[in-house]
Specification:
Elements (H helix, E strand, L loop, with lengths): L1 E6 L2 H13 L4 E7 L2 E6 L4 H13 L4 H21 L10 H19 L1 H8 L10 H5 L11 H22 L1 H22 L8 H17 L9 H16 L8 H17 L9
Helix pairs in contact: 1-3, 3-10, 4-5, 4-7, 7-8, 7-9, 8-9, 8-11, 9-11
Length: 276
């Protein structure tokens, strides 16, 4: 990383760094004294971050910077609670590990033969008939990921949420939720946008929706999320539809998965969870 510059306020430097992180830029603020801090940035992002810093210096009180800082603090709070007392054995059910393995294998296939992998797993109208291979295409886009960041982000959430749900409700319930939400998410994205998409995030949003509503409808199951994470995931969904983010997202898949997960929480609202 290279030094971008210095600000005569540690708080302002951290505020700007928080904003940059939410924009996908690698920026760090390091205090150099009680009233000064240095900003460091990835050299490849120096030009665009320099332009953002000029804008920040012109209007440091703009709401966009405080919203970014709040968003990061809420996410950190929620993630801290989610990771408290983490035991890897509690997140290693067979369905959880199977989907992890399949997604990793597909990503390796994409690296070695990208066009072959996409051709085999994308939804194609001429291939979605009554044959097994055609039906599989309505589910298989969930295993496609287009960057390492995309893959790691989705698999981390899958491992945390799916592992807890599998431990609490069993492998059959997790498999049923995963398959049905993948189908709903993929069909929604395909019909409303088109066939060229991928990612496990529709299923992740289904798990999020389940935890969100189960925490309200059936708290005895013990599946719940902190308020900060709920707000973050909902805001992220809305921002995706507003098309103001730096990444392209399968927004209808996210919404379809969320609704499917909420529906499962309602269907299982009277089912007790297994003891931890």
């Amino acid at each position: 990383m290279v030094k971008l510059g210095e600000l005569n306020s540690v708080q302002a430097a951290r505020l700007f760094a928080d904003y940059c992180v939410t924009q996908g830029w690698s920026v760090q603020a390091e205090a150099e004294g009680p009233d000064s801090a240095a900003l460091y940035v990835d050299e490849a992002q120096l030009t665009e971050v320099s332009q953002a810093l000029e804008l920040f210096l012109q209007e440091p009180g703009h709401n966009r910077y405080y919203e970014a800082a709040w968003q990061r603090s809420q996410l950190a709070e929620g993630m801290g609670s989610l990771w408290t007392g983490l035991d890897a054995r509690a997140f290693s059910g067979p369905v959880t590990l199977l989907v992890l393995a399949l997604a990793l294998l597909v990503y390796g296939w994409q690296l070695l033969a990208p066009m072959q992998a996409l051709s085999a797993l994308w939804i194609e109208p001429q291939s979605t008939g009554v044959s097994l291979s055609g039906l599989w295409r309505w589910f298989s886009p969930a295993l496609l990921h287009f960057s390492l960041t995309h893959l790691v982000f989705n698999l981390l959430w899958w491992w945390l949420l799916a592992g807890q749900l599998e431990r609490c409700l069993g492998s059959v319930q997790l498999l049923s939720l995963a398959l049905s939400s993948a189908l709903v998410a993929n069909v929604a994205q395909y019909l409303l946008v088109g066939p060229h998409f991928g990612g496990l995030s529709g299923v992740v949003y289904a798990l999020f929706g389940y935890f969100w509503w189960a925490g309200w409808l059936n708290p005895a199951q013990g599946l719940r999320l902190e308020k900060g994470l709920i707000i973050f995931m909902l805001v992220w969904l809305v921002l995706g539809f507003l098309d103001v983010l730096w990444v392209s997202m399968a927004n209808w898949a996210h919404l379809g998965g969320l609704l499917a997960g909420c529906g499962w929480a309602w269907l299982l609202r009277h089912q007790p969870g297994r003891p931890a």
